[in-house]
Amino acid sequence: MDRTSVHEHSLVLSADGMSRSLRRISHEILERNASVLEDLALVGVLTRGVPLARRIADNLGQFEGLDVPVGSLDITLHRDDLDGEEPEVGESDVGFDVTGRTVVLVDDVLYTGRTARAAMDALLDLGRPAAIRLAILVDRGHRELPIRADYVGKNVPTARGERVSVGLEEIDGEDGVIVVAQ
């Protein structure tokens, strides 16, 4: 996380707070999907949704001894905001059949809902899940589409001009969430 920026920022989730939020999300996933745990799968949206999905899967393994498959999903070609740009496409890696499963899409921040919509479209290209759920570390509001998360780590009211920056140990070297004034 770039804390040396000239912009003002405020810490909204520390590393410990992030860990607690992910444990709570994991417990909620267990509670709400008790009847379908054998068909549960997690798919992280590239980039930061993938390590979050892995952490949730690790929690599910610790709490219940479950071995929940985890995949990664690139949504670039499903975005509606490319405007003729040449997209930089990442690589999806979903090594299991999503058909008939309850798939929990995992991402770091829910804002307009457009990323979540693109993720659902990309997932449906792979098969027909029995259900799709959405787990989000931070919901910042300002929806443009009628999408809501099923599991939320923290609701953070923001202004449209602010940016939510999520730092993850696996990518950025440290965990934390800050809101940056632009």
Description:
The structure is a single chain. With 182 residues, the chain is an alpha/beta fold. The protein has a domain at 17-76 and 92-158: Rossmann fold. Helix content is 27%, strand content 27%. The chain contains 4 helices and 8 strands; from the N terminus they run βαβαββαβββαβ. The strands form 2 sheets. It has a 5-stranded parallel sheet, with helices on both faces. A 3-stranded antiparallel sheet has the order 1-8-7. Helix 1 crosses helix 2. The protein is globular. The relative contact order is 0.22. The mean pLDDT is 94.
Number of helices, where a helix is a run of at least 4 consecutive DSSP H or I residues:
4
Q: What CATH architecture label of the domain at 17-76 and 92-158 applies?
A: 3-Layer(aba) Sandwich
Q: What portion of the residues fall into strands of 2 or more residues?
A: 25-35%
Structural classification: alpha/beta
Helical content class: 25-40%
**CATH class wording of the domain at 17-76 and 92-158:** Alpha Beta
Q: Gap between N and C termini, in Å?
A: 16 Å
State mean pLDDT (0 to 100 scale). Answer: 94
Which sequence of strands runs across the widest sheet? 3-2-4-5-6
Largest sheet: 5 strands, parallel
Number of strands: 8
Query: Radius of gyration from the CA trace?
Result: 16 Å
CATH topology of the domain at 17-76 and 92-158: Rossmann fold
